Structures are given as C-alpha cells and as structure tokens.
Amino acid sequence: MEQTNYPLLQNILIPGESAGFLQSVFEGARSWLQPRNPFEQLLTDMLAATLWRYARLATLEARILTIEQDIQPGFLLKQFKNLDAAGRAALVFNVWHKKFTALSRVEAIVLRNFHTLFKTFAEMRKAFPPAAREAK
After folding, report:
1. What is the pTM of this model?
2. Given 38, 44, 82, 113, which residue has the most CB atoms within 10 angstroms?
3. Of 135, 133, 136, residue with least CA distance to 36
C-alpha cells in the first residue's frame, strides 16, 4: 500500500481487501471523532482498525461456511442431498463448531478492544476539554 496519513493502514490489509474502502473507514472515523492532537489521532486510527477487524471476522465466517459447504465429504452430501443452502450451512456449523467458537472468542476480544479504546478516547476528551486547554 502506498504511503498515507494513516500509519496503521500500512500492514492491515490482507489479499482481496479494498485499500480504498479501508482508507474511507479511517477517514470516516477521523471525520466523526475529529481528533484534536496526535494522541487522539492515534486512538481514532486504532478505533478504525478495530472496526475493520470486526467487519473482517464477519467476512471470514461467511467464507468458512461457503468453503466448507463446497468441500464436504461425499458421504455427507449423499446422506443430506436434499438440504438447501441454509441446511448445508447448518451442517457445516455443526461439524466445525469449534472453529466458530474460536472465531466468536476473537470477535469478543475485538469488541472489547473497541470499547476500551472508545472509553479511553471519551475519558480523555472529558479530562481535557478544548476550553481548559485554551484557558492555559
């Protein structure tokens, strides 16, 4: 990825992900939170990166379901040949529930990180309002 004003963008993408869309996530976060200093800017970028990772987990889950449906062993396909796509996904989920449990744990960690970062950002804004800085 080319050099940007978002240092965290440099190593976050995996093949197949859109650099333009990722940059728009970062720009949207900065536009919404309007960081006032380098520390707030870093927290804002960390929040954007965390949101990106959370969205990626949903994509990974969908891809796992799709791939696993396509590579199910022949005996399962014969036994459950009348299943629709949702039934096949449920069968995959049943067989691969440990993988999905692990994915859910990662999802919980990512959400916890987001909430921690956002809380830190909000507390910093409360502790250092613009009027307090200007009065000094």
Report:
1. 0.74
2. 44
3. 133
